[in-house]
UniProtKB/TrEMBL annotation:
Known partners and oligomeric status: Tetramer of two alpha and two beta subunits.
Keyword set, alphabetical order: Aminoacyl-tRNA synthetase, ATP-binding, Cytoplasm, Ligase, Nucleotide-binding, Protein biosynthesis
Subcellular location: Cytoplasm
CC per GO annotation: cytosol
Record-linked HAMAP family: Gly_tRNA_synth_beta (MF_00255)
Protein origin, superkingdom: Bacteria
Record-given protein name: Glycine--tRNA ligase beta subunit
TM spans (from-to): none
Cited PANTHER family: GLYCINE--TRNA LIGASE, CHLOROPLASTIC_MITOCHONDRIAL 2, GLYCYL-TRNA SYNTHETASE
Database matches in InterPro entries: DALR_anticod-bd, Gly-tRNA-synth_bsu, Gly-tRNA-synth_heterodimer
Gene: glyS
Enzyme's top EC category: ligase
Length: 560
């Protein structure tokens, strides 16, 4: 008696975006229901769900076996339907399609593009999958292959084929839902259906190429990016200037970055992108190439959107990296500048993704960019459109806060992140290098004790009265352990200075770990808060130097 309620509740809880009604009934589902099989053991469960009374009869394939199929038992469900040309197991259909598509692609001396989402969708559209090879006219290969692939995948649910060099072949694979006596007829039908789609793409491509890419900017002057921040063309001009600022600071060319930034949004007003939004950036690349723009400028028009998601591809050129960072940073500064901060549930301008994208580019491409100065420059580009007070700091905090989640995903303890964050490095690459060094330091046997000592020293220094001397005076030492620690600090300082200059943070911390023994001996034998004011002040200066050595990498006291 519980089963009908459980099943009905489960069906109602399915994440169906749009439900429908049919006939004069009030029931709603993704599609009209035709029959219902519900068995418990070999018994039919007496119930009515979604306007259907339960029974034990299903139906076979519409053409191969249009009769009812009696389901003998739950255990026989799959075999009973298979005998009627219905593969009821989704995973089995998926596997058959995947295997056969690969086989056919190999026969065509190509490789099939099989996105998991498309494979799932096709497996859900057929009950007796029969993949077939079709073709289209080679003249369509003059159109950017991404546009052809997009329309064949999204509109027709076809699997496209690439040659050994990654170029699109004039063939594709469709998955029929029938074992036809005349498969050529199905092939011809699909070839006939796809032709108008490809013709449209060809038309848009040819229309766009009748004018220079840069002329598309004129249309963008009337397209709003954000009401308070101006048009898309205004954004392109800001991105151009910001990219020109960034490029030479990461080893790129300012002039080419500026050019790429100016052209970066042009294709948004093209016919191609109007019909195929997924082509933004890609269309720009092809049009820029046709106009004779430098290769890195053309590539940057597509690379500006990278990474397009978690783990996605990064820009391959410095020009592309500069424009990608500039585009994302411009959005961050602008949206923060008008007070539209993201909330826990809403982030309409994808600011979190933009911040993570900037960090990934800088860290994974090893680009040493001073984000503090760059963000300040970006703020100046908006003039009176934004409120600049405290804006740069707010944006920087938001960007560097994204690193916390990134490192947690990588298994880095939050204390490690906080120890570096305390120093507020200006470069994301520098930040990451410090994190990796501290992570390695924690594995050393001396790490825990030195972290505790740093915490103790930090507490002592915070309670010191007045300013702490910058220099240590050996004449005030009255204990051999003071001399030992002072000597060890001098040697360590001399050793780590060149390491710090080269950002060899791991080596630096490994060398500082050698201070554990003289530090332990010092605290065992020396009372820091001596009665003599000069001795006490000198000991504070000594400990300040000790702490300063570690602060050259991170605030190790936060690891305790």
């Amino acid at each position: 008696s519980l089963l009908p309620t459980i099943v009905e509740d489960s069906l109602n809880d399915l994440p169906i975006a749009k439900r429908m009604r049919w006939g004069a009934r009030k029931e709603e589902f993704v599609r009209p229901t035709q029959w219902l099989v519900m068995l418990f053991g070999d018994q039919v469960v007496d119930c009515t769900i979604l306007a259907q009374s339960a029974g034990r009869h299903s139906r076979g394939h519409r053409f191969h076996h249009p009769q009812d199929v009696r389901i003998s038992s739950p255990a026989g469900y799959l075999s009973d339907l298979r005998a009627a040309h219905v593969l009821a197991d989704f995973n089995e259909r998926r596997q058959i399609i995947s295997k056969r598509v690969d086989e056919l692609a190999t026969q065509q001396e190509g490789t099939a593009i099989v996105p998991p989402s498309l494979l799932d969708e096709v497996a859900g559209l057929v009950e007796w999958p029969v993949p077939l090879v079709c073709s289209f006219e080679e003249r369509f290969l003059e159109v950017p292959q991404e546009a052809l692939i997009t329309t064949m995948q999204d509109n027709q649910k076809y699997f496209c084929l690439l040659d050994a060099e990654g170029k699109l072949l004039p063939r594709f694979i469709t998955v029929a839902n029938i074992e036809s006596k005349d498969p050529a007829q199905i092939v011809t039908g699909n070839e006939k259906v796809v032709r108008p789609r490809l013709t449209d793409a060809e038309f848009f491509f040819k229309q766009d190429k009748k004018q220079k890419l840069e002329t598309f900017n004129d249309r963008l002057k009337n397209v709003v990016f954000q009401a308070q921040l101006g048009s898309v063309f205004d954004k392109a001009e800001r991105v151009s200037k910001l990219a020109a600022y960034i490029a030479p600071r990461i080893g790129g060319d300012a002039q080419r970055a500026a050019r790429a930034g100016l052209l970066s949004k042009c294709d948004l007003s093209s016919e191609m992108v109007g019909e195929f939004p997924e082509m933004q950036g890609i269309a720009g690349y092809y049009y820029a190439k046709a106009d004779g723009e430098p290769e890195d400028v053309a590539l940057a028009l597509n690379e500006q959107y990278m990474p397009r998601g978690a783990g996605a591809e990064l820009p391959t050129t410095l020009t592309g990296a500069a424009v990608a960072i500039a585009d994302k940073l411009d959005t961050l500064v602008g949206i923060f500048g008008i007070g539209m901060l993201p909330t826990g549930s809403k982030d309409p301008y994808a600011l979190r993704r933009a911040a993570l994208g900037i960090l990934r580019i800088l860290i994974e491409k090893k680009l040493d960019l001073n984000l503090v100065e760059t963000v300040k420059f970006a703020v100046t580009q908006f003039g009176a459109k934004i409120k600049p007070a405290g804006l740069a700091e707010q944006v920087l905090d938001f960007i560097f806060d994204r690193l916390r989640a990134r490192y947690e995903d990588e298994g880095v303890d939050v204390a490690v992140y906080l120890s570096v964050r305390a120093l507020q490095p200006a470069s994301a690459l520098d930040f990451d290098q410090r994190v990796q060094a501290v992570q390695a330091f924690r594995k050393l046997p001396q790490a825990a004790a030195l972290a505790a000592v740093n915490k103790r020293v930090s507490n002592l220094l915070s309670k010191a009265e007045g300013s702490i001397a910058q220099t240590v005076e050996p004449k005030y030492f009255d204990n051999a352990n003071e001399f030992s620690l002072y000597s060890a600090i001098q040697q360590a300082d001399h050793a780590v200075q060149p390491m710090a200059a080269e950002r060899q943070y791991s080596e630096s911390l490994a060398r500082l770990a050698m201070l554990r023994e003289p530090v332990d001996a010092f605290f065992e034998a020396v009372m820091v808060n001596a009665e003599d004011a000069n001795v006490r002040a000198n000991r504070y200066a000594l400990l300040s130097r000790l702490r300063g050595l570690f602060l050259g990498v991170a605030d190790i006291s936060l690891l305790g």
